[in-house]
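dumping these here so i dont lose them again. two proteins, back to back, each one seq then structure tokens. dont judge the mess
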Amino acid sequence: MVDFEVVRVFCGPDGRYGNPLGVVRDGSSVPSREGRQRVAADLGFSETVFVDDALRGVIDIYTPTLRLPFAGHPCVGAAWLLDVPELVTPAGTVACRRDGDVAWIAARSAWAPARILRAYTSAAEIDALSVPPPGEWIYAWAWSDEAAGVVRARAFPGRNDGIEEDEATGAAALLLTADLGRSLDVRQGRGSRIVTHLAGDGMIEVGGTVRR
């Protein structure tokens, strides 16, 4: 098994929860896409990042079953871990900034993989949801406090790859922000937190607390 480390991305206000991210700092130890896909499947995280150039921030992202040109929680985690001004992904160059345990990225919603944004009428409805059958990638959400921009959300990838529910998904929060046209404070999963800001020129900032 290759060397890797784990960070938790989008931790809650109390420092708990967050979505675990596998990071292979020495991407050259797994040079092929096929090999990286096998490693990502073996590790079993919702995403695993391979760092191909730590100084330039060049990264490669995989779920257990597929390669992603861009994803939110891997980029935020890599931005915090590498502490670089930008990340280079197949989708585009992602601007980054870090303030202690909080990391931010700026990206375009067009870079995010497609998700079904399914609105519900209350946070209680979101809490009561069961995991749906595989098939559709569903981001279920409802307002907790619409005036304040606070959202309750849960994510169901529907890929039949062992990840029934994603604890915190930055790309889905980015898509929801673009769809609603406003900055959001998303409380997802068991206790994770994702914050988004409209940054102008079509860019959206996504940020959160990262812990080892």
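---- next one ----
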Amino acid sequence: MTVRHRGALAAVAAGVAALTVATVVACGSRPAGNVGATEAADLAGAAPSPPAAGPSVPVTRGELPGGTRTVPPVRLVVPAIGVTATVDAVGINGATGEFEVPPSVDRIGWYRHGPGLEARAGSVVVAGHVDSATQGEGAFFRLRELDRGDTLTATGGDGVRREYRVVAREEYRKTKIPLDRYFARDGKPRLTLITCGGPFDAEARRYRDNIVVTAVPA
């Protein structure tokens, strides 16, 4: 699952390891349409940004509050899709410029250069693999099934469990996803979950789209 720096996501799910055609049949299906897109945009407090040209997108706009101790998510539970996953703090690979999603598909990554769970503004981003040819289904294999009203729990490094409610599920082509919105440090507090989806490009060995789920504090 790749995410470019200043493009730390244009392919947040593009590098989901090598995938087999058999796997595509199982997880390449589309969600039942987008839901909550307007509400997701409103949370960012600004009009949707035009798509970036290529994978380069701003992901470090804004400043984190000085003196604030960032609380990383360390565990995510999503009952509706059977997820209980460990969350690792990840950044950007200096050599490739990509978002370093954990190599084990049963774990997910939190973008440590953005807000933590204590933040009163901005998007807390977690991304995970949908599947792998060698490891099978990933933690976010069923992310596309989430719907408005579903709940999830993120436990922080401070031991506090925080409840969230899903307000939107959207699917974008990787070249059109408004990443500046989803990686923003401003706007209302929200949790953003990202994986890959849509049809699988066998030649490029990657999915065409990204699935984005937005949740707000319950």
